[in-house]
Amino acid sequence: MSAAPAPDGSSRPGTAPGSLIDLHTHSSASDGTDSPAELVAKAAAAGIGTLAVTDHDTTVSWAAAAAALPDGMTLIPGTEFSTVVAAPERLVSVHLLGYLFDPLDPTIVAEHQRLVAERLNRGLAMVDRMVADKVPISRQQVLDIAAGAPVGRPHLGMALVQAGLVGSVTEAFTSYLAFRGPYYVAKADTDLPAAVEMIAAAGGVPVLAHPRGRGEVRVLSSDYIGSLVDRGLAGLEIDHPDHDAAARAELAEIADRFALIGTGSSDYHGHNKTLRLAQEHTAPEALAQLVSRGSGSLPVVGASVGSS
């Protein structure tokens, strides 16, 4: 049974890192609300011994998270890539986790720069649509909330919360920011197969994020997932808050069929979402498989000051 969440979003008390493994979390470098250092501290308090910080389309949080590691805690460098798959009616957004890739790989650097610009243009275009409809938020307000992070819909949601128009970012996503709503603007994300190949070519380990949550189920059939294995796909996020028991069982069967690594993660975003650190986690043997596949960067282990 999971422990009740503490007021800071952690799932169990304590100050030293424990044995839990959480491979999907977000800091204020993208759409989380904790700084990288705060995220690491809360993860340690939640009993997490191995943490992946996977901000959207950026590696900017890696250094700050590594610098904040307590003695013995391990950081798995990662990113959540924004990708799309073509469906008959429209492009479907699919998120792809990339671990242990080379952050200086020129293809990834260029694609991250393009995606950050896409996020900014899309976010400001949505703000403009709302302002034209007399919704009381502004471009500068959203930019201030993002504080230099790639602008995303959660930042618009926080602006709507500040304006008193919704009670939470989650509520904003079901109303003002909804895909079929009047203010939605699409952005040009990376083609999923190309993203898998890009991460693998940079020495990374590509893992499909929440493949049975949100809209992904419409395009991520078992056969389609199998086709991505030939391009370098290494794993599936099986245990995720968006997945029910049936989805987890199906994904476990797919992982077995294609010899994919099965991971578990919280997808923690701070107070933007009601998710607890380590409410879902990864088995040690799965982590070992993932680390063995990565060659673009290394896990970082925290050490006491003055240790050799």
From TrEMBL:
InterPro entries: PHP_dom, PHP_domain, Pol/His_phosphatase_N, Pol/histidinol_Pase-like. SMART domains: POLIIIAc. Residues 21-85 form the Polymerase/histidinol phosphatase N-terminal domain. SUPFAM superfamilies: PHP domain-like. Gene3D superfamilies: 1.10.150.650, Metal-dependent hydrolases (3.20.20.140). One of its GO terms (molecular function) is 5'-3' DNA exonuclease activity. Pfam families: PHP. Residues 1-35 are annotated as: Disordered. This is PHP domain-containing protein. It comes from Nakamurella aerolata.
